[in-house]
Here is the input.
Amino acid sequence: MAGCGACGVKLPIIGNQVGRRDECPSCGAELHACIHCRHFDETVAKECKEPFAEVPDDKESANFCELFQIGDGGKRGSGVDKAGALSAAEALFKKR
Here is the structure.
């Protein structure tokens, strides 16, 4: 089921019927934005898994991307803890 990428609330959207001006009824976020798209991933280049997308700088505002598909509103990315990964790398390359 479709969901808001900002607050996580489930949305009664069938198919990919999201207009550019549609907003989340819970938090008011613009739904036709990168953070709500199923291709959005903070861990990849340009934060988009779609290689042919023209990715806008502002990922939270509505855009005109033709490849937009509403996501499930769940957590994006690989789930890697950045702080933990950084401390592990520092420990690995620690000067003695």
The chain has a mean pLDDT of 86.
